[in-house]
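Private note to self, pasted from the team thread so I don't lose it. Backbone tokens:
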């Protein structure tokens, strides 16, 4: 599966600067897009992603390990007896990335399956800042890697539902994420069967 780039030049996609500024900063979206667009391919790279986007931002404690589904725990911290096998980390990251992208693809019309938002809320992986403020991710060390990344997407979608309903695009073939429906519709991409008709759906924000 080809890697995607985090395009900041597309008008409908917030710029990197705007993602970290304003009353409702969008660092969570930046972190999530970085993970799926440039997935970390080593334990060191994954540890750096956590440190930069989650630990330094006060979203969670520094994880000592990661896990995904039926995979065994892979240590990230200095307590690891030996460096994890590169293929082991790659397989874990790829499995997490695939589950995240599949959840976002299901979120697209016509399925419009947004149950992962309710799951993130019910599990406590997202919460309102101060009880009434904007949604923020708050994953835990023991969470699956995919659930940690989904909490980042969930927080931004809950805060900016109309933006995602109007512009989020996920290719049904390669799962490429984009924010420009004019290129190939909501479920295509320039490389895989671009659609002629742009289908922009808007749904009302659910009362969560």
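Design output:
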């Amino acid at each position: 599966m080809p890697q995607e780039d985090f395009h900041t030049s597309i008008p409908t996609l917030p710029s990197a600067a705007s993602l970290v500024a304003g009353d409702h900063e969008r660092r969570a979206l930046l972190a999530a897009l970085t993970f799926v667009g440039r997935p970390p391919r080593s334990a060191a790279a994954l540890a750096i992603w956590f440190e930069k986007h989650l630990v330094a931002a006060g979203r969670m404690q520094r994880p000592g390990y990661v896990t995904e589904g039926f995979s065994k725990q892979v240590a990230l911290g200095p307590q690891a007896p030996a460096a994890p096998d590169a293929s082991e980390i790659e397989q874990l990251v790829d499995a997490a990335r695939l589950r995240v992208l599949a959840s976002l693809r299901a979120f697209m019309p016509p399925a419009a399956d947004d149950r992962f938002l309710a799951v993130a809320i019910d599990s406590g992986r997202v919460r309102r800042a101060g009880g009434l403020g904007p949604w923020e991710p708050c994953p835990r060390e023991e969470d699956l890697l995919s659930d940690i990344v989904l909490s980042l997407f969930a927080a931004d979608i809950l805060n900016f539902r109309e933006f995602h309903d109007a512009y989020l695009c996920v290719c049904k073939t390669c799962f490429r994420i984009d924010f420009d429906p004019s290129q190939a519709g909501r479920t295509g991409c320039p490389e895989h069967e671009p659609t002629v008709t742009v289908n922009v759906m808007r749904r009302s924000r659910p009362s969560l």
